[in-house]
Design goal:
142 residues, alpha+beta, Metal Binding Protein, Guanine Nucleotide Exchange Factor, Chain A, 6-stranded antiparallel β-sheet, 3-stranded antiparallel β-sheet
């Protein structure tokens, strides 16, 4: 079980708000909406690998968007604010990540995982081995 007080010390206020209180950061004012580096996106809380830059695309929504996750994520129906959406959460830490929509590029499968940058830590390909994610390097081999 994740200790909320320890998380408050480890995470920034926006990271805590997004991952633990189901918050949303502002569009176009976040770390990764316009990141074009090759690498791995992991859960800021657990370090669980979530997405690669290979599946990231520009959806013009102001948040990082991905066509598919590395592994299955948890989904829940979200009826907050009078909307009907599919919430996306990490498996290991149960962090709120963002939402899943069906308006993604058809050639990539039609899904759009719209994810808060505050829920993510980005690891460039050049740092993956040092950070302990070497088993995912094969995804980037051309």
């Amino acid at each position: 079980m994740i200790n909320k007080e320890e998380l408050k010390k480890k995470l920034t206020p926006i990271q805590y708000h997004v991952t633990q209180e189901n918050g949303t950061e502002r569009p176009f004012e976040n770390s990764f909406w316009n990141n074009h580096q090759e690498g791995l996106y992991v859960d800021i809380v657990s370090g669980e690998p979530l997405f690669t830059s290979l599946d990231k695309f520009d959806s013009s929504c102001g948040w990082p968007s991905f066509a598919r996750p590395i592994d299955r994520l948890q989904t829940k129906i979200d009826r907050a604010f009078g909307m009907f959406r599919t919430e996306v959460r990490s498996k290991e830490a149960d962090s709120h990540l963002g939402h899943l929509f069906t308006d993604g590029p058809k050639e990539l499968g039609g899904l759009r995982y719209c994810i808060n940058s505050a829920a993510l830590r980005f690891i460039p390909v050049s740092e993956m081995e040092k950070e302990g994610y070497e088993k995912y390097l094969n995804l980037f081999k051309k």
